[in-house]
Design goal:
Length: about 200
């Protein structure tokens, strides 16, 4: 035991004398700092947790997320295109079948007179009114009441011509009764047509 203690004291003395050299002390300090830096870097980077299998799983997850985002983007793009197409078709439908309020009556009256002449029907007086469409400030219903005279065959042809008209005319009521002239009917016709435009109050 005494021998071991003596050897220990000698080693400690030699180490103290070795440390008295500033250059050696600096080397020791630098070595300690280098070991500490390596340990810190190893702790931060943790190469043991970045195994090939782990990295492969992360890459697969990222690829799946990318595919999901691409699919979502494509669906949104397709939905936007469908909405735009629907909006354009709606606009075309309204422009074609919903007449402008400012010119609706003259347009429909001109169309009715043309169809009546082609069918051999004699047109009479016409009156019209506007009724608002519930829930809409932009559209209204124009109702036209007209009087005509003609034969039964001419009346049938006139009705068919109205049904084929591109003006989207709807017959609400039709009345026909004989006149004093044989074969001639007095015809009362009520039609509806949608109109668009501002200030739709009668």
């Amino acid at each position: 035991m005494a021998f071991n203690a003596k050897i220990g004291e000698q080693l400690a003395g030699n180490f103290r004398r070795w440390l008295r050299d500033p250059r050696r002390t600096g080397r020791v300090v630098l070595g300690i700092l280098l070991v500490a830096n390596l340990a810190a870097a190893a702790f931060l980077l943790r190469p043991w947790s970045g195994s090939e299998e782990h990295l492969s799983r992360q890459l697969a997850q990222l690829r799946q997320q990318l595919r999901t985002q691409r699919d979502t983007t494509e669906r949104l793009r397709s939905l936007a295109a469908s909405v735009e197409k629907t909006r354009e078709l709606s606009k075309q439908f309204l422009e074609r079948y919903f007449l402008d309020r400012q010119t609706a009556y003259s347009t429909v009256l001109s169309e009715l007179n043309r169809l009546a002449e082609q069918s051999g029907i004699k047109p009479g007086d016409h009156v019209y009114t506007f009724d608002p469409v519930e829930g809409s400030d932009e559209f209204a219903m124009m109702t036209i009441n007209g009087n005509y005279q003609g034969s039964y065959a001419d009346l049938i042809e006139f009705i068919n011509a109205i049904d084929r008209s591109p003006r989207f005319l709807t017959i609400e009521r039709l009345q026909a009764q004989p006149t004093q002239t044989p074969g001639v009917l007095a015809i009362g016709l009520r039609l509806n047509v949608f109109v668009r435009g501002e200030a739709l109050a009668p």
